[in-house]
Design a protein that fits this description.
It contains 13 helices and 11 strands. The protein is α/β, with parallel strands linked by helices. It has 2 domains: about 190 residues, Rossmann fold, CATH 3.40.50.450; about 130 residues, 3-Layer(aba) Sandwich (Rossmann fold). The strands form 2 sheets. It has a 7-stranded mixed sheet with strand order 3-2-1-4-5-10-11, with helices on both faces. Helix 7 links the parallel strand 7 and strand 8. Helix 1 packs across helix 11 and helix 7 crosses helix 10. The longest helix has 22 residues. The protein is elongated and about 70 Å long. The chain binds 6-O-phosphono-beta-D-fructofuranose (F6P).
Length: about 350
């Protein structure tokens, strides 16, 4: 009898169910007896012993269903070593529940923070397999994370729809795309939708360069400008601040987000009518696109193979279009950022997309 626990942690995405289905189908096809424990609402379920015994039927019909049938929550990695409000040691509690259920291993689906805790559990002696989920695509060691492509589709459509109204009204539109630390989603959605300006955390911007782009377009008779702006876009001025001073700035910040600050500056400097659109969590909602369904089915199947072969302590990655097991200790805590000198940025600049730098 193979006993496997599974949990989804951190922000959700469209393809978590598809990935779990891949794992479970792979196990059921290849192992005679499997017992599956689904921990509810992320690590919370593992800490407090909140789980459901699942059958293969729970995973039927969920390939196309967004969200996660197990629920999710954020338990920041740095809080894992802090006792809870009743003094409970969270790491010991997770180990206790794992051993109590006599699990052979845990399948953990989530982003960077989730991965760090998965690695911590590995260090504590538990058998874990991690599957890289995030619309941000910022997990080191895999070419792509699941959720990313589906989110690109949504963000792209959001910007596509803005094009027509921006052109009709001769307005400047800032569409704020998710991603506090990395700009993969903004860059891809921006290029896919023909944005004129793309602002990402990895390339600090100068507001005057964005003004130049707007004015250049106006001179060319294009009275509108589309700016794809990441949540974590940062000006050159702010990027020069010390961590302490930047934190202070954010504490006294009066704008809902950076897009609104940029909008105010652009209005003052160009006199243009500027509008901000924030698709927000819609980018994580709805069904996975076909790319993510295939990706998750492959990653899930590869995870099942790794479980059966007892290759614990790995992330299942996609490298050069093939699945690959990467040791968690090699990737946990590393962030995969956009390379400002990379060819994709060069190509985008070559066709006239401004990064405000
Ligand atoms: O899961 C990643 C992400 O969607 C980021 O792109 C975004 O900045 C953040 O999560 C939003 O977090 P929350 O869902 O907690 O508001």
């Amino acid at each position: 009898m193979l006993k496997i626990g599974m949990l989804t942690s951190g922000g959700d995405c469209q393809a978590l169910n598809a990935a779990m289905r891949g794992v479970v189908k792979g196990l059921h096809e290849n192992v005679d007896e499997v017992e599956l424990y689904g921990f509810l609402n992320g690590y919370h379920g593992l800490i407090y012993g909140d789980y459901r015994l699942l059958s293969g039927r729970d995973f039927s019909g969920i390939l196309t269903k967004g969200g996660t049938i197990l629920g999710t929550s954020r338990t920041p990695f740095k809080m894992m070593r802090e006792p809870d409000e009743n003094g409970l040691d969270k790491v010991e509690a997770m180990k206790h529940n794992y051993y109590k259920l006599n699990l052979d291993g845990l399948v953990i689906l989530g982003g960077n923070g989730t991965q760090k805790t998965a690695n911590l559990l590995r260090e504590e002696g538990l058998n874990v397999i991690h599957l890289p989920k995030t619309i941000d695509n910022d997990i080191w060691g895999t070419d792509v994370t699941f959720g990313f492509q589906s989110a690109i589709d949504i963000a792209t459509e959001a910007i596509d729809r803005i094009h027509t109204t921006a052109a009709s009204h001769n307005r400047v539109f800032i569409v704020e795309v998710m991603g506090h630390k990395v700009g993969w989603l903004t860059l891809n959605a921006g290029v896919a939708s023909g944005a004129d300006v793309v602002l990402i955390p990895e390339i600090p911007f100068d507001i005057n360069k964005i003004v130049d782009t707007i004015e250049k377009r106006n001179k060319e008779g294009k009275g509108f400008t589309i700016i794809a702006c990441a949540e974590g876009a940062i000006s050159k001025k702010d990027a020069k601040l010390s961590k302490k001073d930047y934190k202070k700035k954010l504490e006294n910040y009066t704008y809902p987000s950076v897009s609104y600050e940029i909008a105010e500056q652009l209005t003052k400097k160009t006199g243009a009518e500027v509008r901000v659109v924030v698709p927000g969590h819609a980018q994580r909602g709805g069904n996975p696109d076909p790319y993510d369904r295939v990706l998750c089915t492959r990653l899930g199947a590869a995870a099942a193979m790794a479980i059966i072969d007892k290759k614990w302590g790995n992330m299942v990655a996609m490298v050069n279009r093939a699945t690959k097991l990467i040791p968690l200790e090699k990737v946990a805590g590393k962030l995969k950022q956009v390379d400002p000198k990379g060819t994709m940025i060069q190509e985008a600049k070559y066709i006239g997309i401004s990064f405000g730098d």
